[in-house]
Amino acid sequence: MSYDPTVLDATVNVLAEAAPDADQTGQFPWAGIRAVHESGLLESTVATRYGGKGAALSDAAYILAALGRGDPSVALISAMTIFTHLGQATKNHWPDDLYRHLLSEAKQRPLLLNAARVEPELGSPARGGLPATLARRTANGWSITGRKRFVTGAYGLTHFLVWAHTDETPARVGTFVVPNGLPGIQVIENWKSLGMRASGSHDVEYIDVEIPGENVLELVDPSVAQQDNRAHAAINLALTAIYLGAAEAAQEAFIRFAHERVPANLGHPIARTERFMTLSGEIDLLVAGARQIIFGALDGNHGDAEIFIRARLIAGRQIREAVQIAVRGIGNPGLNADLGLERHFRDIQSVLIHAPQEDTSISILGRAAFDKWNRAELAQTARGPAVPVLKTA
């Protein structure tokens, strides 16, 4: 374990207290982000070679599940930075001086990083395609022009990791590290989602934004620049832990209501009734089962992408259903903002919206099942027909 459970619990309490107001206003959730920063959790996955704690992906998922219980919007914004540090720990693809400079910034303020990849015309790169955003060579570095969609935490990010193609011949594709606040950056406030309102996943437009020449990662030929959904399967499963946390918060709200609600004609809490015991059991089966599925896959330490993809889909569907059961079971009070269950219900709808979406993930599993069958058929053909064994008396 690379984090202090006491510190984590205290941080979650701060997030939970600030979450209702952040949800109502839709403003950047600074109170929660500062709490995550001050706890050191934002840098939990920084590699030990940089003086960090070197948390693994499963550790990050445990942290995100806890933060999700407090405020999933804050957890999602934090996840982008946590995963970025984890990527550097495993791939070492950042220029060393640039990365160390960012870590020095993290000592003074929350360092918030997020990839800006989705575009209005392209949609999600998880479905294939290359960016229209252009990185043009200048005398001192690069000039970035383009528009990105669904940039989580846009207002509070310290750096955008912008996916773009170069104006070179032949062109290359890479990720450009763009500090927030530079001339030419405009956040377009169009995030009006049902849930995850405080995540501030607005569009961002870049018009001739000048950055240094060293602020670029992994410039490659476009032919190898497609997003690999199987390679990101474990990360996507860890992201689902955020919504597991939200479902656990919904479960807690349901249980509290069941114990505090005492109808006059009953004379005791509805938690004692068979109906609510059964509802509680159904919710527990789905939520606790999802936790087992998520962490069972992540702690298994294997490289089978299909296992992670299945776990994400099953767990995501379960926790979405669990919160629906809780809202239906309580009735009108469950839809009232005062109880908190209504907010959890809205937030949980985003659990399987993140790329790759359900249909793409299902297609990956279906293709893998077909490929497995075809390989088995080829192997059988190569061995030839089975030769019967004659038995003698």
TrEMBL record:
Instruction: List the InterPro entries hit by this protein, alphabetically.
Output: Acyl-CoA_DH_C, Acyl-CoA_Oxase/DH_mid-dom, Acyl-CoA_Oxase/DH_mid-dom_sf, AcylCo_DH-like_C, AcylCoA_DH/ox_N, AcylCoA_DH/ox_N_sf, AcylCoA_DH/oxidase_NM_dom_sf
Segments crossing the lipid bilayer: none
Has the keyword Oxidoreductase been applied to this entry? yes
Q: What's a Gene Ontology MF term here?
A: acyl-CoA dehydrogenase activity
Which residue numbers delimit the Acyl-CoA oxidase/dehydrogenase middle domain?
Answer: 119-208
Does the keyword field hold Flavoprotein? yes
**Which superkingdom heads the taxonomic lineage of this protein's source?**
Bacteria
Task: Extract the Pfam families matched here.
Answer: Acyl-CoA_dh_2, Acyl-CoA_dh_M, Acyl-CoA_dh_N
Secretion signal, residue range per the UniProt entry:
none
Q: Acyl-CoA dehydrogenase C-terminal domain location, by residue?
A: 239-355
Acyl-CoA dehydrogenase/oxidase N-terminal domain residues are 12-79
Tell me which UniProt keywords the record has, alphabetically.
Answer: Flavoprotein, Oxidoreductase
Q: Which protein is depicted?
A: Acyl-CoA dehydrogenase
Q: What is the lineage of its organism?
A: Bacteria, Pseudomonadati, Pseudomonadota, Alphaproteobacteria, Hyphomicrobiales
